[in-house]
Amino acid sequence: MRRYSFIKLDVFTRRPLQGNQLAVLTDARGLTSAQMQALAREMRLSETTFILPRDRAIEKKRGIKVRIFTTDEELPFAGHPTLGTAFALRGRGVKKNEVVLDLTVGSIPVSFSKRNGAVFGEMRQRDPEFGVTHSPEAVARALALPVSALDSRFPVQTVSTGVPFTIVPLASLETLRTIAFDFRRADEYMQTSDAKFFYLVCRQTEDRAT
Predict the structure, then answer these.
(1) Can you tell me the distance from the alpha carbon of 210 to that of 196, in angstroms, rounded to the nearest whole number?
(2) Backbone phi, then psi, for 83, in 5-degree steps?
(3) Options 47, 73, 98, 137, the catalytic residue
């Protein structure tokens, strides 16, 4: 029986067992797409990534090949899996301040720096592609919110840098904190949309200095 090593990471946090969890298989050569999907389902995390090492000359030109899977499907791109996988590579011998991943969506560079004693990763995504503008009333119903909870200064619109999200601007940070997300209702709306997920944003911040 073949054995494959993996590591688990907590992304977007300074504290263990918080943030966004990620599983990274450090050398997934030999696995089929179906096996990768089955392993991602077994991990039961939002995403699992599979590193596919190849010739150094190709990696230098195009980046390190990585595939991203949720429990249900493969994604061409996702944020915290990209940052987490690049961090894992940096900690396992890729001693560079920039790691380039070759994802389905294309080459994504991730740069690292030290900030306040911690490692900070920053990626350069594809330029955004703008999709349809959505009805605020319909989106509010899908999110079980009054339409007044949305920030009317901005459109509700699908935007993609690899995976299409419907960007929903909210009027207050309190709504973002307390929303009771109805996944069934949201999924029903997504089935009729050009996006895969909702992405809720707000111009208010926790830190008034930012």
Answers:
(1) 30
(2) -65, -45
(3) 47
* pLDDT for the residue 94: 67
Q: Decide which of 81, 102, 123 is a domain's last residue.
A: 123
Question: Do the Cβ atoms of 25 and 50 come closer than 8 Å?
Answer: yes
Distance from the Cα of residue 199 to its chain's centroid:
11
Is 98 a residue of the active site? no
pLDDT of residue 117: 81
Domain with 195, as residue range(s), is 129-202
What is the residue-averaged pLDDT of the chain? Answer: 94
Whether residues 18 and 98 fall in one domain: yes
CB atoms within 10 A of CB 44: 10
Block residue for tokens 């990626």: 123
Identify whether residues 116 and 147 lie together within a single domain.
no
> Whose structure tokens read 């090492």?
53
C-alpha span between 73 and 33 (Å, rounded): 10
120-158 confidence digits (pLDDT tens): 999 999 999 999 999 999 999 999 999 999 999 999 999
Tell me how far apart the alpha carbons of residues 190 and 64 are, in angstroms, rounded to a whole number. 32
CA 5 from centre of chain: 22
Domain of residue 24, CATH code: 3.10.310.10
pTM for the model: 0.86
DSSP designation for 5: -
